[in-house]
Amino acid sequence: MSEFGKIDGLSGTSTAELLKQKSKAASGGEAFAEHLKSALNEVNDIQETSEKAIGDMATGQVKDLHQAALAIGKAETSMKLMLEIRNKALSAYKELGRTQI
């Protein structure tokens, strides 16, 4: 084989291997989407719990003020985290859009 036929450390990849890698990447993307969806549902549940605690505080039905305050703080923190994740994802998407091929 000529010196240009093979690069050290790299070997040829067959079409079948490329298709296997593509299918693994696609399933990885679906797993990411499912994980993101479950995280959004979890944040939504935390927000609903917080809203119930705020309603209970407003009506005087709260039994433990400390637990209500913790639920509200947890909801605030989880929303801030989700917003930061969204901002980072949008930033990465915009960066990919600016990338020249």
Mind sketching the topology for me?
Blueprint: H1 15-59, H2 65-98
Helix pairs in contact: 1-2
Task: Explain how this protein is built.
It is built from two helices and no strands. By secondary structure, the chain is an all-alpha fold. It has one domain (17-98). It is elongated and about 70 Å long. Mean pLDDT is 81; it is low at 1-10.
Helix content: over 70%
What oligomeric state best describes the polypeptide chains here?
A: single chain
Radius of gyration based on Cα positions: 24 Å
The H-and-E topology, N to C, reads as: HH
The count of DSSP E runs of length 2 or more, i.e. the number of strands, is: 0
How many individual helices?
2
How much of the polypeptide forms β-strand, as a percent range? under 5%
Q: What global shape is seen? A: elongated
Q: How many domains is the backbone divided into?
A: 1
Give the terminus-to-terminus CA distance: 31 Å
- Classification by helices and strands: mainly alpha
Low-pLDDT parts are 1-10
Most strands sheet: none
What is the average per-residue confidence, as pLDDT, rounded to a whole number?
Answer: 81
Brief summary:
With 101 residues, the protein is an all-alpha fold.
Give a quick set of tags describing it:
2 helices; disordered N terminus; 101 residues; elongated; mainly alpha
